[in-house]
Amino acid sequence: MDFLNDFDPSDDENNCKHQEKPTYLPFKPNFHEKYWYRNALKENQTATAITEIDLFRVADCYHNGDFECAENILTGLRESTKNNRTHEIMLIDSLLQCSIKKTSELSSPETSISLQFLSYYESILVDFGDQIQFLRTKAFLLSKLPFTSNYQKEFKNTMALLCQLCGSFENWQLFEIGSKYFTKLEMFGLKLKMKKVLKYEIDHSKGFIQEKLKKRLEKITKELNELEGELESNIIESIHSSINSHKDTTTVESTPNSEFRAHESRSKNKLIPVSDQPATIEDFFHRFPFLSF
Question: Which residues form a coiled coil (predicted)?
Fold first, then answer.
């Protein structure tokens, strides 16, 4: 223990006193002009900065209705950058959103490309949030396609999966964008369900959100009254009975043939595997018999 005799704590104090403190430049916020990215130069920029500029330009084009320009930039990003799964999903979803917004009805070549994107999109899903976004995007896309019995069935199945995953009013109301795929009887039942979900959300919301939902409720109630006048009373009673005979909320865990591992995250547990989707869809239509399966 003799080495302790040579230890002098004052040495450290002296070293600290003589050590130079680092100097930092004063902080200056980097203010950009509102549309700085429109004319931003990409020379001598990092790859991350270039991607950021392009994404700002995509958002700008999309906001201003120039969906073709946004598509071109997004396509360039997919081809020129190395994307992980999350970025790839973001780019594909954005490309599909542009296709959805571009025209009232997609042409045959656009339909083919979009369906290819959808197929690839679905193949790289791994969690609950991505699957919800995928199904919402798919529903919007299918609503833009010309009416066929196949697209009709696909839209109904897509909405069944979406509302099984998350039965919020935001999702249920998407049935309206595919109204061409439903009869008046089916739309009456769907709007009745929307009204029930909406009342639940109004009871659990406050402030401006509640006010906005109440206005939506008034609109749906008016639409229901109009449809009710076109349907027979016994059919209306049957639909009311089917709507009130099940719970307001459902979970994927309640669907048959679903096996989840305890060690997986909940976001993964909620994702509906492809193998379980037929049973999930069948369960949905069983609970809402007014919808033709």
Answer: 210-237
Cβ neighbours for 43, distance < 8 A, ≥ 6 positions apart? none
pLDDT in tens, 190-221: 999 999 999 999 999 999 999 999 999 999 99
Among residues 34, 70, 30, which one has the least CA distance to residue 54?
70
Cβ pair 93, 133 in contact under 8 A: yes
Q: What is the pTM of this model?
A: 0.81
Question: What pLDDT digit, counting tens, does each position of 219-269 carry?
Answer: 999 999 999 989 898 888 989 888 887 665 444 334 334 444 444 434 556
Domain boundaries, given as residue ranges, for the chain: 42-124, 152-293
DSSP for 77-126 reads HHHHS---HHHHHHHHHHHHHHHHHH-SS--HHHHHHHHHHHHHHHHT--
CA distances 135 to 124, 182, 191, Å, are: 13, 18, 20
